[in-house]
Amino acid sequence: MYNKLVFCLLLVVSLQIVSLEAQSYEDKRCKCICPSIKSVNNNTEDDSDRMLIIDNVPPNKCNCDGVILPRIADKIKGKEQEFCPRCDCKYENRNTTIIKVVVIIVIWIISLLVIYMLFLMCLDPLLNKRVKANYQEHTNEDEDTSVAVGSQDMQVRDGNVLNRVGHSQDKWKRQVREQRRNIYDRHTMLN
Fold first, then answer.
1. What pTM did the predictor assign?
2. Where does the record say this protein resides (predicted)?
């Protein structure tokens, strides 16, 4: 089962990598942030209304002349020298393949944890039904040790996974009750 899961995961990742090679244009881009055109035409500084232009150009053309002016030259005629210094252009080189692979792995991990949680939710009623049928509250410590020895014998005899988990849960609950009694009643801590 584990081998099939690993195989499926590798298959999905390899298919994603193949599909990403066709989209390599997203990996390299020029991102320019400029003030609004109104700020140049009205000579008012309004930085709250900014323009964002993203284009796929070579690194040497990632500037106002290569990205911004071809798009808005007719709107800012004669004011290019005033507009371009306010633009901030950055060339970004990222690897979307790694980003997508990490996202796929995270989704797989979350899916496995959800499946495990559903398994435990299905298992919980079976354990609680068995525990309620065999549950006795013990008040004497001598009885606790004899029950613990008896439960260990039951664990050895009974190879059932549910019983082993249930007995471990019972042991843990007894330890928690003992700790609570020591802390709240006796005001001491267990070592």
1. 0.40
2. Membrane
